[in-house]
Amino acid sequence: MIIKKSEFSISSPSVVRCPEDNKLEFAFIGRSNVGKSSLINMLCNHKGLAKTSAKPGKTLLINHFIINNEWYLVDLPGYGYATTSKTMRNKLEQMIAQYVLQRRQLANLFVLIDIRHDQQLIDREFIDWLGESNVPFSIIFTKADKLSGGRAKSNALQWMNKLEDRWAELPPYFITSSEDKTGREEVLDYIEEIIQGIENQEAE
Ligand code: GTP
Ligand code: MG
């Protein structure tokens, strides 16, 4: 997949306000500060496209970016940001759940995991919930540049293996870094594969 053009489209406070043009979309979710917005910028080779911040809780709306005038990347707010108020947290959780469950155009949800940490309950519960809800998703490990040598790969494998207690078939996963662009081609090729698969299905 070659990205020729990436542009901000719209920020929406709820799923009913999202674009209505029926283009396929790929969304990014994960704990606050895991690197969702940075990954979108890295994939698009477009600094500043999605707003990033060293402070958690930067993205608070559903942000659509139109790619090659054909499909969307979607930046979602992070979950589990402890220091926001309970009301705000509930509001964000509801926004995320509605988007994930109701958005027909959602071709794949990427769940981002910081590669440095052990499996956290909040991520695990979210993933189990996606499975129960039949949402198509895959895992993206972020910040691989922060680990040296083979540690990124072994941490990712260990994390994935922990899913085996409940998951008969493991979802696809990718190891990435927005700093050195690790994993960029793999993620973009995977997106292309999904788009082609859906287009072929529709042509049948
Ligand atoms: P919220 O919108 O607050 O939920 O955060 P987010 O998940 O969008 O994270 P964001 O992309 O804003 O990045 C958070 C911080 O992590 C920033 O300081 C980034 O520079 C840093 N960061 C993101 N990706 C990477 C990476 O691959 N490597 C390194 N070293 N730092 C990263
Ligand atoms: Mg963000």
Automatic annotation (TrEMBL):
NCBIfam families: GTPase_YsxC
Primary role: Necessary for normal cell division and for the maintenance of normal septation.
Family designation: Belongs to the TRAFAC class TrmE-Era-EngA-EngB-Septin-like GTPase superfamily. EngB GTPase family.
GO terms of biological process kind: division septum assembly
Keywords on record: Cell cycle, Cell division, GTP-binding, Magnesium, Metal-binding, Nucleotide-binding, Septation
Species assigned in the record: Prevotella corporis
Molecular function terms, GO-annotated: GTP binding; metal ion binding
Cofactor field: Mg(2+)
The EngB-type G domain, residue ranges: 22-197
Pfam families assigned: MMR_HSR1 (PF01926)
Keyword flag Cell cycle: yes
Gene3D superfamilies listed in its UniProt record: P-loop containing nucleotide triphosphate hydrolases (3.40.50.300)
Identification of the protein by name: Probable GTP-binding protein EngB
Superkingdom assignment: Bacteria
